Amino acid sequence: MQLTRKRCSSRPTPSFLPKIVVILALLVFPGQATAFSPFTQDKPPEIKVNEADALRTEIQGLANELFRNLADADPENGDLGKGVLICTFVELKKLSRTSSLGRYVAEQLMNEMQQHHYEVVEIRKSQAIMLQEKRGEFGLSRNPAEVSQAATAGAMLTGTYTSSKDSIVINARIIDNRSAKLLSSATAIIPRNQLAEQLLADTASVRMEKPEPLYLKKLEL
Q: What does the H/E/C string look like for 60-88?
């Protein structure tokens, strides 16, 4: 009887090649296991929305709503034809308290008003430019002694914000400076995300100057 020898090939069959590639990839690149593995279902990468761009878009929508609600939105001869000044937005529950969020909303609305050709009055303009070596040139100030004591404008843009666990409600309004009549109002709701938390982190109240002590002296008659 004739015996036949079967040759045992050391080369793996093609069906084993993908598994060997995966094992080698896991050993060489352990942090990229998901990318190399053919056994995992491909998922589209999560797209992170830029929070700063999203917040700016919300403020733009807030400004557009203010423009729509104006009875006469003509920049030259309408409700705001005599100019508008922008004030910091404050907390609804305490009108003397604000944060970087309140200042940011005011800054963005100032840009929107100017881009729509409204006359915007900058009340923080200092009467002189302060120069400091290694720091720069400063033309804005919140020091009452450095800014003009009078500002001429027909209207004021201001508002409040209210924060909750998941969102922040921003209410804006434009007020006639002479009659205190409400010319326009608008509302925006923004998520309380990481950017909002950072803007709210420096919340502080207005410093109220304490009155000077009054000393009494008893007169003996």
A: HHHHHHHHHHCCCCCCCCCCCCCCEEECC
